Amino acid sequence: MSNFKISVRQFGVHAILVEWPNKVDESILDEILQFIQYLKKNQLSEKEWEFVPAYNSLTLICKDTVLDFDYFKPKIKEWYSLIKKVSHATRYLWRLPVSYDLEFGLDLQEISSQLGLEVNRIIELHSKSIYTVYGIGFLPGFMYLGGVPEALEVPRKSTPRSKVPAGSVGLAGKQTGIYPQDSPGGWNIIGKCPIPMFNVKNENPCFVTVGDQIQFYPISMAEYQLHKIEAEVGIYNIEKIVLNA
């Protein structure tokens, strides 16, 4: 049996939104991912359905036809009540390099004053933590990473930038993340990652999935330039560790 109460509501003519309690909780995310595996294995074909998890919700999208919500609403609750232990899809811990050089860390000094922490301490706290991917959205490949240490919690900027460079690593509240492309943004920028998070030319454009984990590690400016070139020519090997082997 599942541990949480869910709500099921229509989300347009092709989609159903399943919602768990409105809180950031890794056990909720684990259950969402388990439910996806159950649905794929027993009820809904991946050829006909798309599954979009995020934080405390799962959007089920019927790709080709208008769905009969009155039919599916009780079915989804029934399937959820019958959820069984199924094997999760393979999940990874990805270790990503970040240069926290002040040229890239546009807001490091401001955050240092705001939080009363030395810049080196901010880098230490940010890079030693392990973050969970709770959602991917806003931009293709933009990861919403939960697990920011309380000491690093800082609000979004009051005035967003009109352009945040691709690869910029930001902080906002309890979240951190990487901007996968140039875009406007209001997160506090503390560094830059040389590894692209989204490449439309790849069979799997975003190598990270919801439920994976991320750990950053500091690199020098010279290492950043080297890894950027390696990534551009396709020879950089991203370090990953299987979590559920």
From TrEMBL:
Alphabetical list of SUPFAM superfamilies matching this protein: Cyclophilin-like, PH0987 N-terminal domain-like
EC numbers, comma separated: 3.5.2.9
Cross-referenced SMART domains: AHS1
Superkingdom of source: Bacteria
GO molecular function: 5-oxoprolinase (ATP-hydrolyzing) activity
Gene3D superfamilies, A to Z: 3.30.1360.40, Cyclophilin-like (2.40.100.10)
Entry-linked InterPro entries: CT_C_D, Cyclophilin-like_dom_sf, PxpB
Keywords on record: ATP-binding, Hydrolase, Nucleotide-binding
Main enzyme class: hydrolase
Occurrences of domain Carboxyltransferase (ranges): 6-208
PANTHER family linked to this entry: 5-OXOPROLINASE SUBUNIT B (PTHR34698:SF2)
Name of the protein: 5-oxoprolinase subunit PxpB
Organism this protein belongs to: Arenibacter arenosicollis
The organism's taxonomic lineage, starting at the top: Bacteria, Pseudomonadati, Bacteroidota, Flavobacteriia, Flavobacteriales
Gene field: pxpB
